[in-house]
């Protein structure tokens, strides 16, 4: 399965695009749409590079998800998992209750876990609250990929 245009749009909306390197809320050097690999202070990229990083990063996340998810997914479920994993990292998501419930076939229970991922340094972040609600809605949607 590959991230759909809905998934890419969701990531773009919530990550935003910065063409100059900056430190995210967690202090990690970031550029483009949440790209962190090889980013250093003073780095500047073009919009085309930001788009290419997003495509590559989302493909990497898709591969990672495929290695941890043991149950069938709709396109909407896959896209929601891609977005949250893009944001939080596979290391955090792979051992999470969300993934545990999902792999037990408890899709409804897994959907309820999205809202728990709303903290930045121990504080509820309104942007993450909105993002997790959008991801949960996509996870619960009837999107089977037929229109993607």
From TrEMBL:
<keyword id="KW-1035">Host cytoplasm</keyword>
<dbReference type="Pfam" id="PF00959">
    <property type="entry name" value="Phage_lysozyme"/>
</dbReference>
<keyword id="KW-0378">Hydrolase</keyword>
<keyword id="KW-0081">Bacteriolytic enzyme</keyword>
<comment type="similarity">
    <text>Belongs to the glycosyl hydrolase 24 family.</text>
</comment>
<keyword id="KW-0326">Glycosidase</keyword>
<dbReference type="InterPro" id="IPR023346">
    <property type="entry name" value="Lysozyme-like_dom_sf"/>
</dbReference>
<protein>
    <recommendedName>
        <fullName>Lysozyme</fullName>
        <ecNumber>3.2.1.17</ecNumber>
    </recommendedName>
</protein>
<dbReference type="InterPro" id="IPR033907">
    <property type="entry name" value="Endolysin_autolysin"/>
</dbReference>
<dbReference type="InterPro" id="IPR002196">
    <property type="entry name" value="Glyco_hydro_24"/>
</dbReference>
<keyword id="KW-0929">Antimicrobial</keyword>
<dbReference type="InterPro" id="IPR051018">
    <property type="entry name" value="Bacteriophage_GH24"/>
</dbReference>
<dbReference type="InterPro" id="IPR034690">
    <property type="entry name" value="Endolysin_T4_type"/>
</dbReference>
<dbReference type="InterPro" id="IPR023347">
    <property type="entry name" value="Lysozyme_dom_sf"/>
</dbReference>
